[in-house]
Model the fold of this input.
Amino acid sequence: MSERFFPDTMPPPMADGTSLPWWEAAAEHRLVVQECGACQATRLPPSPVCPDCRSDQFGWREVSGQGEVYTFTRVHRPLGAGQAIPFVIAVIALEGSGGLRMISNVVGIDADAVAIGMRVEVVWEDMSPDLAIPRFRPTDD
Ligand SMILES: [Zn+2]
Done:
């Protein structure tokens, strides 16, 4: 994507020691989820301890970036000057993630055409060489 989804005045996301590997994968346009090293439960966003078994051992599982719109809302108020409205904030059910959902935006389609159950795929918005934001666009299937 070459066009910015949010205004340049919007601050970039902050990475910490736990989430940095997630952001590094994103910068390479790889969507990953955290996987517990003890019980293999997946989680997102990244956290230092497994909420299922309390293990602090974990790794990263790459997912396809395919999924579907679980639910969404259309936003009719701009976040800043130059923000195109309406835009869509959606909960995306990620395929192959162990049942995880992530909050993102649906792009590349009129906001009024977004629907629950719509098949989507990840598309990356490069904010800088070190920062890419995952958004989702409809797929043909
Ligand atoms: Zn666990």
